[in-house]
Specification:
- The chain has 343 residues and is an alpha/beta fold.
- The chain has twelve helices and nine strands.
- Strand 7 and strand 8 form a beta hairpin.
- Helix 10 packs across helix 11.
- The longest helix is centred in the first third of the chain and has 29 residues.
- It is rod-shaped.
- It starts with 7 loop residues before the first helix and ends with a helix.
Length: 343
């Protein structure tokens, strides 16, 4: 006989390739995480020293007595200046509520701009930014009560909107009047809430189906219909059962002997004993005229000289047996069956 079940060696041979790839991916992820440090390196991050970071302006604000609080959950903004770096990720109703509660709000490139212009040095052209002077502005153009830098910076009430964030970065802070403009916008109060929202702020307001475009939904529906039609086309049509002759004829004695060898190889003497007892009950029950499944012990005792308890022990005992006990059990069952037939 040829073993077809995979052993430990075959399993290891098949699994070592994917396992090695997984280890390499895990090692790479750990190395990248260590190289990135604490993750303080994002754009407009007040902790970042990178060119696109904002550590310099945060340091200047602190030197001027402004407490900078970086957060991704702006729940407490009362009496503070609120600086939102990505307002488009926040639900408009929540953003409006935060702006009402904050003493002053600065929004960087929110949706709603009427035009887009290239970043360049511009003159303020308004009293709001007269002290700052020329600064690097651009991006979106907005409508507002006070308009500066060709409407790339506007203020309505306590909300200031700026279309381009170069004045807050380490790279451009020292150009023109960028530092003065950044300090005047973010240093309006002694506390600044630096709010860096994430995609989760928007996804919390909508379900997964709301985030999927309608075209994708329609495409998924078409693919589903096509899959069903393909399954119906390729599915097998099952007809009536057709009997076929066996390719070879195996004698019953060989089948019994082969099963016995399997039981012996797996040391399943207990299971073999249960099979012998069940087969004996199945033969004795119709022989005694009893319905299938009924205990034949009482009727056997009436026809033989054996006691009911002894017969029940012989037919239903679950005590473990060894190979020698299995041979003895088979002999006792044969003797019992012969007694019933003769009785």
């Amino acid at each position: 006989m040829t073993a077809v079940s995979p052993d430990a060696r075959r399993i290891w041979t098949a699994a070592r390739g994917p396992l090695l790839i997984g280890v390499i991916i895990l090692f790479t992820a750990v190395v990248l995480t260590l190289l990135r440090g604490t993750g303080e390196g994002g754009s407009l991050d007040p902790r970042s020293y990178r060119p696109e970071g904002s550590h310099a302006v945060a340091r200047l604000l602190e030197q001027n007595g402004v407490r900078v609080e970086l957060t991704d959950d702006a729940s407490s903004v009362e009496g503070a200046t609120l600086f939102v770096t990505q307002p488009n990720l926040i639900d408009p109703a929540r953003l409006a509520d935060l702006s009402r509660r904050a003493a002053a709000t600065v929004l960087l490139a929110p949706a709603g701009g009427v035009n887009r212009v290239e970043p360049e040095t511009r003159q303020p052209g308004c009293a709001l930014a007269a002290k700052a002077g020329a600064a690097t502005t651009g991006g979106f153009v907005y409508e507002g009560e006070q308009r500066c830098y060709d409407s790339t910076l506007v203020r309505t009430g306590t909300v200031t909107t700026i279309g381009y964030g170069a004045i807050f970065t380490n790279r451009d802070l020292d150009s023109e009047g960028n530092a003065a403009l950044a300090l005047s916008l973010l240093g309006q109060h002694d506390r600044l809430v630096w709010y860096v929202p994430s995609a989760a702020d928007r996804s919390q307001q909508k379900t997964l189906t709301d985030l999927v475009p309608d075209g994708w939904k329609f495409g998924a529906l078409q693919l589903g219909v096509a899959a069903v039609l393909l399954a119906l086309w390729r599915a097998r049509r099952l007809g009536r059962v057709v009997p076929e002759p066996l390719p070879v004829v195996v004698r019953a004695a060989e089948t019994v002997e082969g099963r016995a060898r399997l039981y012996r190889r797996s040391h399943a003497a207990g299971h073999a004993a249960s099979v012998l007892r069940q087969a004996a009950r199945d033969r004795l029950t119709p022989l005694l005229g009893l319905p299938a499944g009924e205990d034949p012990s009482g009727e056997i005792a009436r026809r033989t000289s054996r006691s009911t308890s002894d017969i029940r022990t012989l037919l239903y005992s679950e005590e473990p047996v060894d190979d020698r006990g299995l041979v003895a059990l088979a002999s006792e069952l044969d003797a019992l069956e012969n007694e019933v037939r003769k009785g």
